[in-house]
C-alpha cells in the first residue's frame, strides 16, 4: 500500500479513518468490523475508504505510519531529542507516543501486536540501520523493548515517571 498524496486534507481523512477503527475496536472484534461501519464512523464514504485502502488492516498500518512521520518531523525540529539510544531521545519517544496511547493500547488489547512490531521494525530498517554504528538486531531489540516498556507503562496507568523508564532503557542499551 502506497499513499502518494500526502497533503493535509488527505492526511486528515486518513487519520479520521484510523481513529474510527480504534473507536470501533473498543466494542467490536477486529474481524467483525466492516468497511461500511468504518466509513460511517469516520464521516467518509466507502469510496473514500477504498481510495486509500484495500482493508482495515491497511488503514491501521497507515495510521501508525502517519504517527511515525509526525514523530520524525518532531525529532527533526527538536535538537534536544538526541541520538535514539540516549536518555533524552527515549524520554522524547515515550512522551510523544503517549499522545497516541489509545491507538497503541487498543491494538494491544485486541491482540494486533503484529501491526505495531512490523511497523516499528520497518521504521528501524528504513531510518536507523547503519552497519558501521549499530547491529540490525540491536536496533530491533531496542525498538521492541521500547515498545514493550511503553505498552506496559501505559497498561499500568503510567505508574512511574517516564524518566525512570528512559534511564532504565538507556542503561540497558548503552
Automatic annotation (TrEMBL):
Keyword NAD: no
Entry-linked PROSITE patterns: HTH_TETR_2
InterPro entries: Homeodomain-like_sf, HTH_TetR
Domain HTH tetR-type: 11-71
Domain of life: Bacteria
Keyword DNA damage: no
DNA-binding residue intervals: 34-53
GO MF term list: DNA binding
Protein known as: TetR/AcrR family transcriptional regulator
Organism: Lachnospira eligens
Amino acid at each position: 500500500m502506497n499513499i502518494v498524496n500526502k497533503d493535509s486534507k488527505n492526511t486528515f481523512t486518513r487519520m479520521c479513518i484510523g481513529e474510527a477503527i480504534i473507536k470501533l475496536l473498543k466494542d467490536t472484534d477486529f474481524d467483525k468490523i466492516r468497511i461500511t461501519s468504518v466509513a460511517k464512523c469516520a464521516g467518509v464514504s466507502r469510496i473514500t475508504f477504498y481510495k486509500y485502502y484495500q482493508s482495515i488492516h491497511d488503514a491501521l498500518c497507515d495510521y501508525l505510519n502517519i504517527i511515525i512521520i509526525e514523530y520524525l518531523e518532531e525529532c527533526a525540529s527538536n535538537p534536544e531529542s538526541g541520538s535514539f539510544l540516549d536518555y533524552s531521545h527515549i524520554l522524547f519517544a515515550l512522551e510523544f507516543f503517549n499522545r497516541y496511547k489509545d491507538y497503541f493500547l487498543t491494538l494491544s488489547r485486541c491482540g494486533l501486536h503484529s501491526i505495531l512490531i512490523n511497523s516499528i521494525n520497518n521504521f528501524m530498517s528504513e531510518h536507523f540501520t547503519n552497519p558501521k554504528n549499530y547491529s540490525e538486531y540491536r536496533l530491533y531489540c531496542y525498538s521492541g523493548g521500547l515498545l514493550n516498556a511503553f505498552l506496559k507503562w501505559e497498561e499500568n496507568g503510567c505508574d512511574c515517571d517516564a524518566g525512570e523508564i528512559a534511564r532504565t532503557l538507556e542503561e540497558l542499551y548503552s
